[in-house]
């Protein structure tokens, strides 16, 4: 009985701390909480034009120089029904993508060596 009373008191003592936590300043965040896009330059233009058909995760996990990004846009226009962007919008989007998601080394992990893999239960060829 006493323990329960003490628990209740401890919870009540914690309440003001929860209520008066200062709000986090949004401008200080490097990436947008909802889309995950880097909050740098024209990220909102990309969010507005590029997340209608798929998640922004597809954008973030990709990388490339300007020509690679442009080829992705052309591919989406020619095969996925993306409306052609006006030249100024396309230019700004390509600059954002190249600056924030430029060429990088492969982020795939190296394959595990055989002795670290689980046993294969099937006969091998
Ligand atoms: C009209 C619909 C549509 C719009 C708008 C659109 N996309 Fe896509 N995009 C697709 C489809 C469909 C795929 C393939 C999805 C899948 O593989 O699951 C795709 C795939 C991608 C990929 C992955 C390509 C790969 O190599 O796997 C990237 C990167 C991408 N889109 C970027 C963008 C960017 C940047 C924009 C804004 C300029 C955009 N998309 C706007 C339809 C669209």
Q: What is the percent of helical residues?
A: 40-55%
State the fourth-level CATH superfamily of the domain at 35-102: Cytochrome c-like domain
Poorly predicted runs: none
Per DSSP E runs of 2 or more residues, the count of β-strands stands at 0
- CATH fold category name of the domain at 35-102: Cytochrome Bc1 Complex, Chain D, domain 2
Radius of gyration: 24 Å
Query: How would you state the average pLDDT, rounded?
Result: 86
Strand count, sense and closure of the main sheet? none
Q: What is the count of DSSP helices, taking H or I runs of 4+ residues?
A: 5
List key phrases describing it.
125 residues, mainly alpha, Cytochrome Bc1 Complex, Chain D, domain 2, 46% helix, flat, binds heme C
